Amino acid sequence: MAGTAPKNFDRLEIGGKITLNGTLSINSLSGFRPDAANAFEVLHAAVSNPDHGRFSTIEDNLNNNPVLERVALYAPDGVLISYLKGTGPQQTKTFKRISRRSTRTNRAPKANSSNAFSR
Description:
- There is one protein chain.
- By secondary structure, the chain is mostly beta strands.
- The protein has strands at 12-14, 23-26, 39-45, 57-60, 68-75, 78-85, 91-94, 110-111, 117-118.
- Strand 5 (68-75) and strand 6 form a beta hairpin.
């Protein structure tokens, strides 16, 4: 990842359903480091699959700030990595879907009462 603009990080676009496993490795390019509320949609699938699984490991070589928590947000149609200010352990959340607009901003999406992303 080299920045927060969609052109500055890779995103995998899948034309069908996804099934996750294995390791997601997140690395810095050009010295980029995330700030609180940065969010990156790293994977998007055209077909929703609520049982797509999870990455077994996330190697985060991007975040070197001990105050930021990485949160992996899993939805049936993709995966979003977000960085939030805090001091707790890394988190994983599951949501109904990822909004296509979620990577167009530096603000992290919020979960509403229906567990779907909203603005």
